[in-house]
Write a structure and sequence with these properties.
By secondary structure, the chain is mainly beta. It contains 4 helices and 21 strands. It is globular, with a radius of gyration of 20 Å. The termini are far apart.
Length: 360
């Protein structure tokens, strides 16, 4: 029997008829651990003892956390020692043919830099889960890149909870290329003064696929700064719900935050729900939120057609550009080039070389 729960709860509920307060899902009764294929960064290390996961709020929510707890799966731990700023990325690939979960802790000690790239594929006709906790101590930096190029029949849940110390930063890039039913959630608890949180999210949805996203930045420390930027394209009968919340908690004076979603609609049958939200219990803060939702403009079509590019090809190019823009902002050149080679809908995975397979 599957477990029916609610995920991606909006921090402050709105009218029920809008259907954005949460999402009801059914999770498999049991899941197996997905063993990663991993290339560890030069100075990153694996540890046996991880974080106290019950202390972290996560994007998919408390019911999902309880589900993961009941699986009994043990978290893998990737860590950086204090003061270690070696920038080399740890590369991880998760691929499975049945229901499976990957549980991971990322720990950056004081003054260190931890870089991790995760590539998800497979899960044909199956449920996949990635459950991640992140701890960035004072002056530490965690950079996480996730690319989801799953089988078109996959159902996937990506759940993240992060805590940031003084002057710590957490930078997250996420790219969703495929997967039938995708559910992403992130809560970043910005406890320390001058902590920084960035999310750069690109997506492409087609067919009857469903994408459900819940990002929350809890800004507690003074002079904290958060940026959550989403952009993507919907075609055919795709559905997407995006919740982006900036929560200015009392005491976070002089903090700044913004959340935006830019959506390209390529079909009259798509369903888009965008909920940019600012909660404010502190007076001296700056918050910005907004959304840009529309189809390809007549001016854009004229530009392409004047150069011999038909409308259907122009739409494909504009959709792909949403993903390529996120990939292009990845600072590490090896990761960036690898991701750019994977975000095209028509690329043949079998022809791509992968550092995880021992190739450069």
């Amino acid at each position: 029997m599957n477990s029916a729960i609610k995920i991606n709860n909006l921090p402050v509920p709105t009218w029920r008829w809008l259907k954005v307060n949460d999402k009801k899902v059914e999770l498999p009764e049991t899941v197996k651990a997905v063993e990663p294929k991993m290339t560890l960064g030069k100075t990153s290390e694996l540890r046996e003892s991880g974080l106290s996961r019950a202390d972290y709020e996560t994007g998919l929510g408390a019911e999902f956390d309880e589900y993961i707890k009941n699986t009994g799966l043990k978290a893998g731990v990737i860590a950086k020692k204090a003061g270690d700023t070696n920038p080399e990325y740890t590369w991880i690939k998760y691929n499975a043919e049945e229901d499976g979960a990957a549980v991971l802790d990322l720990v950056a000690e004081e003054g260190s830099v931890l870089n991790v790239f995760i590539y998800y594929s497979g899960f044909e006709g199956a449920n996949g889960i990635s459950d991640i906790r992140i701890d960035a101590a004072e002056n530490a930096e965690v950079n996480l890149i996730e690319v989801f190029r799953l089988d078109k029949t996959a159902v996937f849940y990506d759940n993240i909870g992060a805590k940031l110390g003084k002057k710590a930063s957490f930078n997250l890039s996420q790219i969703v290329v495929s997967g039938d039913n995708m559910n992403l959630g992130v809560v970043t608890d910005m406890i320390g003064d001058k902590s920084l949180h960035n999310i750069d999210f690109g997506y492409l949805r087609a067919g009857e696929s469903d994408l459900d996203v819940n990002y929350v930045a809890r800004q507690r420390g003074k002079l904290t700064e958060s940026h959550m930027m989403a952009g993507g394209a919907l075609r055919e009968s795709a559905k997407k719900t995006f919740r982006g919340t900036i929560d200015f908690i009392r005491g976070c004076a002089d903090s700044k935050g913004e959340v935006r979603d830019n959506v390209l609609l390529l079909s009259p049958d798509v369903v888009n729900r965008t909920v940019p939200l600012i909660l404010c219990a502190e007076e001296n803060v700056e918050g910005e939120h907004g959304a840009s939702i529309g189809k390809v403009s007549d001016e854009e079509l004229f530009y392409f057609e004047s150069r011999g590019i038909p409308e259907n090809v122009a739409s494909e190019l504009l959709a792909a550009s949403k993903l390529e823009a996120v990939a292009g902002r990845i600072k590490d050149s090896r990761v960036r080039e690898y991701v750019l080679s994977r975000v095209c809908r028509k690329c043949d995975e079998e022809d791509r070389k992968c550092i995880l397979d021992g190739n450069e």
